[in-house]
Amino acid sequence: MDKINKNRLFLGSCLALITTAMTFAIRARLETVFGPEGVGLTMEQIGYAFAPAFFGFTIAMIIGGPLVDLLGIKKITWMAFITHAIGIVLTLLADSMTSLFVATLFIGIGNGFVEAALNPMVASMYPDEKTKMLNRFHVWFPGGIVIGALVGWLVMDILELSWQVMVGTLFIPLVIYGVLFWGQKIPVTERVQMGVSNKKMFSSVLKPLFLFMVACMFLTAASELGTTQRIESLLKESVTAPLLVLAFINGIMALGRLFAGQVVHKLSPSGMLLYSAIFTFIGLWLLTITSGGMTFVAATVFAIGVTFFWPTMLGFVAEYLPETGALGLSVMGGAGMFSVSLVLPIMGNLMDNVSASEALRTMSILPAILIVAFLGLHIYMKKRKGTDEA
Asked: Does 1 fall in a domain?
């Protein structure tokens, strides 16, 4: 690790994640551009057009996970850079459901390669602070969404410039993270450092505890990203500027993840997940019955809930199932994004045929299930800790 510039690599990783996150916020703003009052797509069609952002992410994670060990973190990072660049250009040229679908697919693949390469790199660089540093790295997912939401609001609502200008701002963090990674020595993954064989890695992802965490990842990711990705339509009747609510939610998430170290010290990862599920459930229900300024109160509760979901799920696997390696982290991330690709069209159908409130009420079923699941996990981990100490 002596010849590795950890600070520069971590900064580059954060910029890559900012690029990823900005695409989420900007895509949320594009919903109105391509929707019934713009290009003319239905909410369900937009759900299908946006779905590749998530299943493309999943494909890249599943492919990239094993390849990180084989090809190295550096090559996967540059694959992320190239597919990001292609996706941004294609988005600028999009004018239909099909062209938007293809552009979103490239963006999703780029986002997936970022996570496939950089989650194991952070875990490898900070072996004694995995959950803390993964949370600190993932500060920049909500942080990037805040940036993207404010850029979208400023460019389109305040300056009244074209949506292409908004999309073009993605080139700024893209170029910066490319420069930061250029010519740098990058560490091997933790699995390679530990000398864990491919056979053991693949067998480890079939362990019951890992499969349980994958199932929970389906629900945590859908609860968080399924809601925030469609917030422009979900809250357009409740507030005048839904993108500001999105920025508000992700601002809270960024602050929470920044101070995750103190939270981890007080609560175990399983305890964090249980409390997250409770707050997420309450927040989603409050969003169905509030409007105006009270929407921000409901959004605060929801934000507290989803803040630690994604990085703590990854941190739990990295800490308690390290033999699953980069593949384990990739399967987790891929499962989460794939679940969102499934839920977006369902939410769109509900909004087309019933109401946004009904869509939110339906989404609240997911954290309700998680409350039961994480309560069981918390009890299991406490018993396991007691057995290990004995």
From this structure: no
